[in-house]
Amino acid sequence: MFKINQHPLERTQLLELATKYGSPLYVYDTDKIEAQYNRLTNAFSTVKNLKLNYAVKALSNINILKFLQGIGAGLDTVSIQEVQLGLTTGIDPKKIIFTPNGVSLTEIEEVAKLGVQINIDNLSILELFGQKHPKIPVCVRINPHIMAGGNSKISVGHIDSKFGISIHQVPHIKRVVENTGMNINGIHMHTGSDILDIDTFLRATEILFDVAKQFENIDFIDFGSGFKVPYKEGDISTDIEQLGLQLSERFNDFCVEYGKEITLMFEPGKFLVSEAGVFLAKVNVVKQTTSTVFAHVDSGFNHLVRPMMYDSYHHITNISNTEGRDRYYSVVGYICETDTFGSNRRISEISEEDVLCFHNAGAYCFSMASNYNSRYLPAEVMVHRGEDYLIRKRQTIQDILHNQEVVDFSIIKKNSEEAIPA
């Protein structure tokens, strides 16, 4: 259960970090990441072979990847660049699974050369890959036609989704296997993010079990992730312990039916890092209008886009003044568009220069940040065993200009003039 003013680090330490590293600032607590990892592994402790592959897209800083690798996680990747990031940490390529969507055969082949587990989500590429590389085992992503997730933008297992091969096309998959002689060694699904109804999720797992039975050489079933974490006071989350009890029993029974111990996989991202991260921003201006009090911070949706993109809720606390009288504010950014983090929020009285803390900022926050308005990306700090470490420097104007090529317009003008006949 989420509690008001709950954050992974102490208020005084966060204020010290804001002073030390400046704002805006992302801060991640590895203790919380490890606690979430252990919670998930404990929930499935009765499964003989369990593998958790962290979804790199949630938060891709290589220090976070190294930490997760150190506590036993593999990596779930969606691009060759994420694979390359993972490999820089020294992880065994066999502990990485590549689950792209709509990428070219060329990219899949390049990843396959790196020794990574390939996961294919469409019949066309499956057939082409099987014809050219029948000896490389692949996993197939199934679309179970199950609607799950917090909203339409993050629900990816329904019938109109672009993700996965329809369950009704399993005969086509089998025909491709027969024609190419390729080996299907895994079955995968991902229904969507912010799953609350575990019964719906369990219905989808039954679909995967039925599909897996139709292939002889399955080594693992990857059930995706999307487990919901709490965002606000009184909020509820996925009952991981209950899911663990029910799915573990069913999975163990399936292993008996299938005739061998296969691996149960998940690909948690948000579940592991969301609550471990906070975003700190300083208040530039408190602006009273005829109807609203705005708290303008030194950031915007260029740094934290989820509220504007997904209507996501991030709890906001004033860590500079926790004992003040509560008032109502709309917290907004400095981008020259509507740029709202939260409307009509009850927050301890805000003054200019106060530091506001945005909770649940570990997942899909920095990783979706941009240089919109030519603003710098913020710094990232990792707190590990109580000590803080700078894991990404704040950008400078040199970073903004990097890779931009300057055209000499004087030469263009001169060449144009010379080209005009006298």
CATH superfamily of the largest domain: Alanine racemase
Question: What would CATH call the architecture of the largest domain?
Answer: Alpha-Beta Barrel
Write down the Rg: 24 Å
Q: What is the approximate shape?
A: globular
Category by helix and strand content: alpha/beta
CATH C-level category of the largest domain: Alpha Beta
Largest sheet: 9 strands, mixed
Number of domains: 2
How many individual β-strands? 18
Q: Report how far apart the termini are.
A: 81 Å
Mean pLDDT: 92
CATH topology of the largest domain: TIM Barrel
Helix content range? 25-40%
Into which percentage range does the β-strand content fall? 15-25%
Low-confidence stretches: 1-5, 148-158
Count every helix, treating DSSP H or I runs of 4 or more residues as helices. 13
Binding site for substrate: 306, 310, 337, 364
Domain Orn/DAP/Arg decarboxylase 2 C-terminal: 26-362
Modified residues (N6-(pyridoxal phosphate)lysine): 57
Protein name: Diaminopimelate decarboxylase
Structural commentary:
The chain has 422 residues and is of the alpha/beta class. It has two domains: 44-269, Alanine racemase (TIM Barrel, Alpha-Beta Barrel); 277-401, Lyase, Ornithine Decarboxylase, Chain A, domain 1 (Beta Barrel), CATH 2.40.37. The protein has helices at 11-21, 30-43, 62-70, 80-88, 105-113, 123-132, 170-180, 198-212, 240-258, 270-273, 306-310, 397-401, 409-419; strands at 25-29, 50-55, 74-77, 96-98, 117-120, 138-143, 165-166, 184-188, 220-222, 263-266, 277-288, 293-297, 316-318, 326-332, 340-348, 355-358, 379-384, 387-392. The strands form two sheets. Strands 1, 11, 12, 13, 14, 15, 16, 17 and 18 form a nine-stranded mixed β-sheet that branches.
